Amino acid sequence: QVQLVESGGGSVQAGGSLRLSCAASGFFGSRRYSMGWFRQPPVKEREGVATIDSDGSTSYRDSVKGRFTVSRDNAKNTLYLQMNSLKPEDTAMYYCATRWGVTAQPLLQSEYDYWGQGTQVTVSS
After folding, report:
1. Which of 16, 78, 85, 110 has the most CB atoms within 10 Å of its CB?
2. What is the Cα gyration radius of the chain?
3. What is the C-alpha to C-alpha distance for residues 122 and 105, in angstroms, rounded to an integer?
4. Taking a C-beta distance cutoff of 8 angstroms, is the pair 106, 51 a contact?
5. How far apart are CA 41 and CA 63, in angstroms?
6. 18-65 pLDDT, tens digit each
7. DSSP code per residue over 72-120
8. SS3 51
9. Cα 42 to Cα 54: distance, rounded to the nearest angstrom
């Protein structure tokens, strides 16, 4: 069973930083996989934030470019999201997700098969 567990969320002042982690477990075999971060602000739809595939190629939504950095440590089966210069509009529940293979639409949530339970990020001004 594939399991994803997020951590690192919390409350921070605007302009601050947080580093989210997503620990993955389960069987991936030798197949390549993609991982990503999504977020869901209160009331709003879940949206793609940042993704990274097995060769290190990344995708970011425009609103986080230059502020967020996604990375992965394959040896540790862990996905990271370094979030700098946080803004109140970044407040959301953040989820990690994964899929086997690659997709031409990496920021589309329907492309992913496995999801974590989320970690809350709250940014105050």
Report:
1. 78
2. 14
3. 27
4. yes
5. 14
6. 999 999 988 666 568 899 999 999 999 999 999 999 888 999 999 999
7. EEGGGTEEEEEE-S--GGG-EEEEEEEEES--S-TT-GGG--EE---EE
8. strand
9. 31
In the block, tokens 């075999």 appear at: 29
Q: Where does residue 44 rank: exposed (0-12), middle (13-18), buried (19+ CB within 10 A)?
A: exposed
As a whole number of angstroms, the distance between CA 96 and CA 75 comes to 18
Tokens representing 123? 């940014």
Torsions phi, psi of 46, nearest 5?
-70, 140
In contact, 58 and 41? CB cutoff 8 Å: no
Q: Tell me the residue type at 55.
A: D
Length of the chain: 125
Cβ atoms 7, 96 nearer than 8 A = no
